[in-house]
Amino acid sequence: MGSVPFTTSDLQTSTSGFRSSPTLLCTPLMGTTVDQMLIEMRKAKEIGADLVEIRLDCLRNFNPHQDLQILIKQSPLPTLVTYRPVWEGGQYEGDESKRQDALRLAMQLGAHYIDVELEVAHDFNSSILGKKPDNFKIIVSSHNFHNTPSAEAIGNLVARIQATGADIAKIATTALDITDCARIFQITVHSQIPIIGIVMGERGLISRILSPKFGGYLTYGALEAGAISAPGQPTAKDLLDLYNFRLIRPDTKVYGIIGKPVGHSKSPLLFNASYKSVGLNAVYLHFLVDDVEKFFNTYSAVDFASGCSCTIPHKEAALKCMDEIDPIAKKIGAINNIVRRPDGTLTAFNTDYIGAISAIEDGLRGLNVVSPGASPLAGKLFVVLGAGGAGKSLAYGAAQKGARVVVANRTFERAKELADKVGGQAMTLAEVENFHPEEGMVLANTTSVGMKPKIDETPLAKHALKNYCLVFDAIYTPKDTRLLREARETGAVIVYGTEMLIRQGFEQYKNFTGLPAPEELFRTLMEKHA
After folding, report:
1. pLDDT at res. 264
2. Least crowded by CB within 10 Å, which of 108, 417, 438, 483?
3. Distance CA 48, CA 354 (A)
4. What is the band of 9 on the pLDDT scale with cuts at 50, 70, 90?
5. pTM for this one?
6. Any catalytic annotation for residue 462?
7. CA 398 remoteness from chain centre
8. Domain tally, the chain
9. Domain of 28: which CATH number?
């Protein structure tokens, strides 16, 4: 079950006519009473769904004639009726013939679609031969809750579904790795009949969002985060508002953030809103990646993973997969921004240091520290607390601008290792308190001291801050750390961690698109959501 590289040619060979219609958004109704479902239907219409899935197996006391009549006739949206048995992951445990009778009744009462499981589809479809209404379609479904089989096995499954007389095939598998989605994308693109291809679980989320890119017939979006009908299902609202589902087309470029965990990242919010504001045909996703190399090898198409942000724990591992690395990023030994060139090669950058350093330079310019033609950091004594990833970024960034760098770390060895690389001085964190060879120094904290939940802590005593003209804190939860509050009280200019976050985003946007970032929009969204 090796992962097959997924290339652009997979997309271009798709010429089947039915793909010209947009992918539908279907909202499952999980109410336990008819009244609840009627309320949910109206909500689904308000949110912007195209159809609703009536899950009969969720109803507590189901009276087929009476309930189906009400649900189908009163629905403000087209209806898909599903009566999922326990043996296919549903809740119905009763008599099989009664279950199939209810589905036939739904068809007669005007449901637009019914979903029948592959196991019984042959007999069921024979039973309605010649009785199907005009606008009615049968979805034949297969669910695999264990894994995602090989492309060949999935292809055989679609052929079996097609042989039952299905109008639409539905294949739902389970993602053990994000690269499993590539096999479903491949099958979706090449299918001879309309297909719903979904990979369940958090690692399969991209399969649901990208249905329109690969010509999927429909995708499912829940009414609420707590009311999902299958693992990894997004809400309809997120599909529409966060991922701009209606704007995704076969030629849409795919960007995203690679991490583990990654669901908490606000980057999709920033980038998707920005792409939409300038009319860019692109979408930015959460990529939950376990193995970076496998990810890039599998998704090698130029328009897939066109650009990626990279976060913990992959900032170092991703270096090995790159064709070209920006010199400073190479020195820092960590990357956070990857761009795929038109020839398919991968180029990496570290925009963290650019974000922080440019914010600090602007802060110094406000103090009128001007050195014509040079950076206001040139010649400044620049003290970095911490020698981890962010510490490295700031030390290299400041040294590049001509600052004299001092690296302080809890363990002296790590401080010395970094200081030697940037031609600076090393000391322990304890020594910083009494270090003031001159006035007007710059302080940059990259340790986690003062971060939520321990917001009462600070890495440097207040009395020691009077020797600094500017203090930067990389922590952004909380935004106003104790260190920054006390620095402000001693008269220093302060620079927030959120500033580094926003500016490194500007830089990534520029690398991805070749365009300047919509800075006002970025700032507004950050203030509202972060």
Report:
1. 84
2. 438
3. 40
4. very low
5. 0.89
6. no
7. 32
8. 3
9. 3.20.20.70
